[in-house]
Amino acid sequence: MVFSYYSGIFLFVNIASLSSVSAIDIAGKIATNPACKDDVTRLCSSQVLPNDLAVLDCLQNRRSDSDSDIRTECHSFLWQFKLNLTKGDQFLEAAEKMCSEELKSLEECKDQSLEGHKLSCLLENSDSVAQGQCKSFLVRIGSIIFSDFRLVEKFTTACQGDISKFNCGRLDSEEEKDHKQGSTIECLSEHVRNLTKECHLQTLRVAELQADDYHLDRPLFLACRDDRERFCRNAQAGQGRVYKCLIKNKMQNDMSTKCREKLVRRQQLVSEDYKVSKGLVRACKQEIIEHKCFKETNSPVKDRKVKLAQVLLCLENAMHAGNAIGGECQAEMLDHRRQLLEDYRLSPEVVYSCQEDIKTNCRTKEIGGKTLHCLMKHARRQNGISDTCLRALEDLMRITDAGSDWQVDSLLKTSCSSVVETACKNPADSQPASVISCLMDKVFSDVMTTGCRTALLEIQYFVARDFRLDSQLYAQCKSDAAQFCNAAPNWTEEANAIGPQRNPLVLPCLYRYAYHPPADSSLKPECADEVRRVMRQRANSVDLIPEVEEPCIEDLASLCFEKTGRGEEMQCLQDNLERLSPVCKQQVSNYTEEEAEHLELNPFITTYCSRFLETHCQDEMDDGDEGQVMECLVEYKMNTETTMNSKCRAAVEHFQLIALQDFRFSAHFKRACKLDISRLCPNIKAKPQVVACLSEMVRNDSVAQSLGVRSGNHVGSQHRVSQPCRQQLRNQLLQQHEDVQFNPNVRKPCASDEKRFCAQIKPGQGRILECLKAHRKQLDDICHAAIFQAEKEEMDDSGVDFQFIQQCKDPIRRLCQNDASNALECLKGYLDDSTLELHCKELVLERMAEQNLDIRFNPNLKKACSMDIPKFCLGSASKDRELEGKVVDCLKQNFVAKKPLTQSCSDHLTVIMEQQALHYQLDPVLVNLCDKEIQIHCGPEEPENTRQGQVEECLKRKFDTLTSVECRRHVALLITAVQIDIQADPMLHRACAIDLVTFCKDVPPGDGRKPHIGHMYTAVIADSSARFHRLIGNSVTFSTGTDEHGLKIQQAALHANEEPGRFCDHVSGLFKTAFKNCEISYTDYIRTTESRHKENVHSFWEILSEKGYIYKGKYEGWYCTADEAFVAEDQTMLVKLPNGQEQRVSTESNRPVEWFSEENYLFELSKLREKLRHWLKSGPVIRPLRHYNLVKSWLDQELIDLSISRPGARLSWGIPVPGDSSQTIYVWLDALLNYMTVAKHSQSKMNIWPPSVHVIGKDILKFHSIYWPAFLLAAGLEPPKSLLVHGHWLVDDQKMSKTTGNVVSPQSCINLVTATGLRYFLMHEGVPASDGNFSMKRMVRIANSDLADGIGNLVSRCCGKSLNPLQTRLGVSPSSFESCGTPGSDLLSLLERTPDIVHDEYQKWNFYKGIDQVMALVRGANGFFQTMEPWKLKKEGQLDQLNATMAVTLETARVVGTLLQPIVPSYSERLLDKLGVPQENRSWDFARLRWTTTETALGSQQAVLFPRIKFD
After folding, report:
1. How far apart are CA 572 and CA 555, in angstroms?
2. Count of H-run helices and E-run strands, the chain
């Protein structure tokens, strides 16, 4: 009995039936034969040997692998014994007996024509034989047969030539003595790739037959017996399991060298023929057949050469196509892919193609994947390996599908196991491909090890060059790649294809479709997400971006050889963009442009700024506009109130520096300005030059816009640079002014001066630029010129003045509607505002002083005096040098001399002199000429001279003691200026403000034409309504403006000695300034001289004409120029003038009329009477009722047709009639259409026509209630939904008019009581149904009583540290009121009902009633506070009641502040800021009492909301 390992159990095989076989043709048994007797005794004495097969087994399986311990005679005898054994009839009979059932089922084994065929066939089909006696028999016989090649069917004949060629043994009997068991088969196996085809097939056939059990490969069996005991003791024999176990342990340090070499030979055979791997054949048999993973051939010799690579590719292709591959098959595939990457010798293409590269670069490397990774490392270098070797490596990467599973590459797995365990254990990373992606995300993180990073990037170098190797990407994008990028539909072009199949262009193509899809094509969302992931991960290294790396390989070697860190190579290429080769520069530029569009491609931003982005830029990230995300980072980097980590700041600044090289590298700027650049600044790429070019265009167009108005024809008045681009230009200029390193136009020329004067100044925050400006007079000429240009930019647009924007951020938001562009001009009007922070005020004064240095720094003054400067102050001026205030001083001298300056220039000079009188630093001539006199007579040691205006007052008082002639002359000029306009001396004007109104109301203020409080009332009541509706959540379009055509304007311009366009610019500017100073929050300011309005008027005229409502006829009648209207004779009367003459006037306006007879175009108003009456009856169209009744009475009478044009000879200042330039369109038809112009150009997403309401004075009721709806109805449009008509304002019970000289200037009121006081007074006193009565004294009294004493006192008491030491606003609850007893319940009742009452009154335009309700609540709160006496509660230690009192009072103050927001917005804002109310909690929803237990910190603002105004 003998035993062998098989199928995990010991099989005891009875070989008695074969005993007769052992003596066939042999003289005696082996053990007793003289040739072998001694050897058997010597080598097998310790074993039981019942028969010759047992003896043969002993001799063949002895421990020595050398045949020299068996004598030559015995070798010969054994050879003959085995040969006869396999050919003898008894042996075949035994085979038929032992395997009878198997032979019946194997048809191919029944052929009797070939000697030994049955046995050979049985061995070949041993896989199909179940365990049992036949199986054991075949294993035993196999060990006999494969111990010598001459026993294998067909082998001897097929391989005779190759055996001789490769010295693998001789077939003649003379050499039998040198024969070693199985050595010939082993030798041929080692040369298998170079054998003849027939021998190659036979050798592989033998290898297949040996695949079942490692005993059948005699040399391997002998070499690995000890290793099998060491590593694979528990591995069951059969089905290739021992092979598999040994191969798994091949790289173990204690694996014997001989066994490892035999295993390599075995694996090489597997590479040549997949069937040599029993495990793969068994596990994947069904899949191989199903997916046709082998080639059929018509050759008579069956082609058995099916390489492992072909099968793996075929099966991988099936998997990537979504076909099911069994788990066991996938496991076998993984083992073989791992083996291929573990030992380069298993890949014949690598061995052949890379042998020289290995000798040169990797000869010291060991196997175990190290040689392959060595080649991969050199592949990433310039000329690192040969092209043929690179192609072979690419082929191996595809065969092994190395990018799909991190465990395939043993070196990668070993190096990265700890990282995976630490960082990639999330459920989302459970798939092997997900682990690869996770590792790539962490490739430069702190958890990544150097070994893992190196191995990973070496693999990814190849994955990056074939998109199919990234399994996640391929799975989601294969169909899109085939559809859009001409990729093959299969994972391989052919399922069985082997060889390089690079796809380097597919990923860039997918990227283009992901980020820049054509209109009708886009990637699936899942694919787009994968593309973004891949591009984000590959941004870490240029090696992984082949479209950049390959053309830049030489530049990388010469310029960036030291840059090896994350993203450093790309950063280096970007830094050296101008030094790169043309093809490399193009690719780097393209990539940088994409990087600017998509931040995931910037590894520094994504790594170092990720938390900052989540905290500060989440909205921009959610919007998906990464250009805005980058702008957000830049904005916060510049923000002094935000702390950005140093690495993120460095990454953002590097982006800014790189973006200087090409405007395309700034995504938002590129999108906004691309068309403008191509049209206006072609052939310029560097962003600073582009910004300079476009900025110059904007500057020139602004000048043209202000100067180009000629007789209604706005030549050159349109900006050539689009509005979005202008906004981006401001952003770019702001960045340049924040840090001069982003402004080469300053940085380069000022480099030496920066070192000289600003070496200790920290860059950023505008500090360097401010430092250079402070040393203006000491700078080199070239630097001085650069600083001069930078200052011009800041003065043209204060939105680019970084320090100013930062220092005055809150006032700009609070006082200037967040309009940074005009913030300097806005804040000039708030220098006396107590809420303007000192640091901001000082900077405003500093900027004003800079403006006064040079007329070119003051665009508004330059515009206003553009006609006067050439006339009176013409002189040569240095292009880049300040004029030291000479032009302004010249204009002042001419103003004082009463030279005929234009009105706009005079008005601006008055303002400048007023400002200079208050702040002498703003007068550079005074500072220069009187510096010593100021120090001597008016120094800061004099207390009174520390207040504004006192220095100039001091110089005037000390005039006689001044020693400097030049200073005396200039001070005399200032004294004389007061005689021209009292406002030139603000101290005198302020002291006499009430007296001026009382005693000098008939004297017009200077020669100005300024808005009066009647205009302001209309604006304020409309603004209050607009603000109210915004608070309750409505979208509001609020327009105002100036109608600027007509005979009245034409004549007024003539009297002012100004061209009409300039005259209108001046007057309209006054209104805009007045509205801004009074906090009017309009959304559109419309001027009827704008081109958009002219287009609309022409279009509307054509509509009326087409509908037949316009005809030409003669018109006669009385015309009132002041009213711009014809008046019926029964609406006129004769009045006697003081000189005795008679004058016919309008009975309605009391203004003169003249008789006109002329041919005009007429509008058929008479046809529309019934439609107008129907409109009037449709609802409460006109409020108040008295005005409704008036309109109704007009419509009860017949309407006559309306003249809607005037002869051009009489009225040239207007819009010509389309097709008839001899006629000018009627000014009221022109003016009324402003509402439609606004609607057409509204930015609102809603349809805003018809208007909800027109707010008008009663003097223009007829135009709005008869003519305007008639025009609209004739055109087929809806009339306005309603009109709110208010009365006029009297002044001290007298009608306000220019003739009587009692016109009240809003600015004079603002100077006295601030905009808050004026707004409050107008809304408190104004009743739409009746005329209001203005009194300066009453305005001051009401402001003091309600704003300073009523609300202000309440807040200051609650916020004072005496009663509120913790400076908090306590939460309020029902118990707070309950604990205060009856006073608490009374206040609660008032507090609960007030908001609803106020809401209803505001809705009905009864703002005065709403204010009364609020003030009733304020009085109730003050009474409550006084009753509760919290100062006593504190003293007595009644803290609960004290806290309740404070909580109730502060909650009442919060409600009051919320309710008053529409009336006094800045006052309410200060109140709510002081109470610590967040911006998001200020809507009308929060106007009611809100229970809360949360404590809120009070604001740091001063508690004085409105200082009391002192007056006699």
Report:
1. 10
2. 74, 23
